[in-house]
Design a protein that fits this description.
six-stranded parallel sheet, binds farnesyl diphosphate
Length: about 220
């Protein structure tokens, strides 16, 4: 049986989902937020320890201002839900650059991180204003600021945004098959699962299907043995 501690998801296809239904893009994001709630609950039920979600990349700021504003509001609303009783076992952590995020989001994030800090079952790693190249660059700069002149892999590991086990499985929805600057360092030995399902349609059944596919993979971590 493959170990499954950490699942990371690139949530893609909200816009296409809305377009297919002749709806405004924001309706896709809204249903996408419902999928977020569904996968968090499924992760809890399945005993997964860490769930990383790519909610907003450093590149996403280039989208139209109205869409960015809508996404930020949706994020704030979803963050508020994480303090409700049904998330009492979920601890929220943040990966990304604070610089550039609206003050309202940062305040909400800090509030929910604090309120959920004692929760034990699932770590929800929200990747927001996140880019993997930026994460590695930020880590190297933190190490240099400590006065080190020679850097080890361990130094980089310790200075990433969060000190979490590497993802065992990375899921991307909507048929795109690339990493798009997500967890480049951490993904060295991750298994990948790509599905054509658009993110707003990705609910418990689809998540369980991905977990089943993962359970059948043969993981070698570079060993031929
Ligand atoms: C991709 O759809 C998704 C995003 C831009 C980010 C993910 C955001 C959500 C799932 C909304 C809510 C998130 C949280 C954490 C509450 P797209 O717009 O790139 O779709 P497209 O490629 O079909 O245009």
């Amino acid at each position: 049986m493959n170990k499954l501690s950490h699942v990371a998801i690139i949530m893609d296809g909200n816009g296409r989902w809305a377009k297919l239904k002749n709806l405004p893009r924001k309706e896709g994001h809204k249903e996408g937020a419902n999928s977020v709630e569904a996968v968090v609950q499924t992760a809890l039920k399945e005993g997964i320890s860490v769930l990383s979600l790519y909610a907003f990349s450093t590149e996403n700021w280039a989208r139209p201002k109205t869409e960015v504003t809508y996404l930020m509001q949706l994020l704030a609303d979803t963050l508020s839900k994480f303090t409700e009783d049904k998330y009492k076992d979920v601890k929220l952590v943040f990966s990304g650059r604070r610089l550039g995020l609206p003050k309202k989001i940062l305040t909400k994030l800090d509030e929910v991180i604090k309120a959920t800090a004692g929760n034990k079952k699932l770590i929800l790693n929200l990747c927001l204003n996140y880019g993997a190249r930026q994460e590695i660059t930020d880590a190297v700069n933190k190490i240099l600021a400590q006065g080190k002149t020679k850097i080890t892999e361990g130094d980089i590991e310790k200075n990433l945004y969060q000190n979490l086990p590497a993802p065992d499985l990375i899921i991307r929805t909507s048929g795109e098959e690339r990493l798009s600057n997500f967890l480049l360092w951490q993904a060295a030995y991750s298994e990948f699962y790509f599905t054509k399902t658009l993110w707003p349609d990705f609910k418990e059944k689809d998540f369980l299907k991905a977990l089943l596919a993962y359970s059948k993979r043969e993981r070698r971590f570079g060993n031929r043995g």
